[in-house]
Amino acid sequence: MGSSDRTRRAARQQARTRHTQRTADGVDARSLDANGVAARLWAAANDYSYGQRQTAAVDAAFLAGADDHQLGLAVAGVFARALGFLWPNGWLPYDLVRVVGRECDEFATSLVVDAIATDMARHAQASIHERWRDQLRQIEARPWWRHDRQHFAQWLVKQILSKEEGLEVVIVALATLMALPKLPLILPLPGTATVADVGPAAGVDQKVLAKVRGLLAKAESTEFPEEAEALSAKAQELMSRHAFERALLDADDHVPQTASSRRVWLDTPYVGAKAQLVAAVAAANRSRGVVYEKIGFIALIGADLDLEITELLSTSLLLQATRAMVAAGAARADGIEARSRTYRQSFLLAYATRIGQRLSAAAEEENGDLTADDRLLPVLADREKAVNQLFDELYPATVKKSYTVGSAAGWEAGTAAADLADIGLDRQKLTPTR
């Protein structure tokens, strides 16, 4: 038995011992104040995270006997404590909702969203970074409950749950948050953002982004492949032209080049293969990526505009890849193999590899055109330096990971689909303007 296995077994045994002690101490839940209830909730969640999952219902039933007011204070307190750990450890609102939604149920997700809304209400809007506020809007984190009554009691009524059921949700959600690893801190913490932080990213034209998002939304909703390709091509053309023009403006105005980081969450299954596709798009757009496969996202580092292009194009290509994978499987006579995990993983890896080759070739052609304008070379060099510096700061130690291709048929089908994919790179139309 390895040392890690022995450690896990010891932790589980300790959790069982703690649970036995708590249930045998003869304490009446009604005698517990908010601190006592919070300590019990924290201990129950800790035990749950170490594998004592069958005890959550027992702990919840015991704590349901506590005074409602003290119980509400305790539930609010344990989530405030958890968030107080997670924000400095690099987690963002959208990250928490995604991971809780994957590991738990909709009740736990709604409870965490409310906890985030409560925590953010402590800070002035001007002291919260714009990207934080965007994420709060995205997860719809806003107070809906009356503030003259405890949130937990109102949440139970809204979700139509008993106290025992609700407390079990609290324990499971809290355990999920407690088990999360530390991430790089990529944005100022709530309450610390400065005036320079709260505005839109410099150099990114929000009107252009709105048009691009609209085009891609139409491309994803249409049932006609030709229309989808035309819309995707138009979106990429707009973004590429905007990036080209922005670089020229930066050169003329001597704007310092900076880099930032953001996270792209990926749906299961095949997170690793999908991350390779995003990484390929990032590399072609002067950005770098680090894959968190077990958690479910890829972290990107690059200039703000390059990251916008990467996110938007990746979203479109992931959709195209999924549609192509399903269509290729339906067209094959050996349908069982085409629906297998090995086939689909190989398909997506081949798709990512071929898309990377196509984008790299297009980028080399673009860079060849750019060298004709001496204004752009220093800008691109400074941008690359800024990206590499931030990457080294956030990720001083990374390792490369390889993937096994187990299906030749899947690889061939994925390569063929990538050759047909619309990457919308019409360099003839990219004319710089001042």
Low-confidence stretches: 425-434
| Class derived from helix and strand content | mainly alpha
What is the averaged pLDDT score?
83
- Please tell me how large the radius of gyration is: 25 Å
Features:
single chain, 434 residues, mainly alpha, 2 domains, three-stranded antiparallel sheet, 18 helices, 65% helix, disordered C terminus
Itemize the secondary structure elements and their pairings:
Layout lengths: L2 H22 L9 H16 L6 H8 L4 H19 L6 H11 L2 H15 L9 H9 L12 H9 L3 H16 L16 H4 L7 H16 L3 H29 L6 E6 L5 H14 L3 E5 L4 E6 L1 H28 L3 H4 L2 H30 L5 H19 L13 H13 L14
Antiparallel strand pairs: 1-3, 2-3
Please describe what this structure looks like.
The structure is a single chain. With 434 residues, this protein is mainly α. The protein contains 18 helices and 3 strands. The radius of gyration is 25 Å and the shape is globular. It has a 3-stranded antiparallel β-sheet.
Structure described in brief:
The protein is mainly α and 434 residues long. The chain has helices spanning 3-24, 34-49, 56-63, 68-86, 93-103, 106-120, 130-138, 151-159, 163-178, 195-198, 206-221, 225-253, 271-284, 304-331, 335-338, 341-370, 376-394, 408-420, and strands at residues 260-265, 288-292, 297-302.
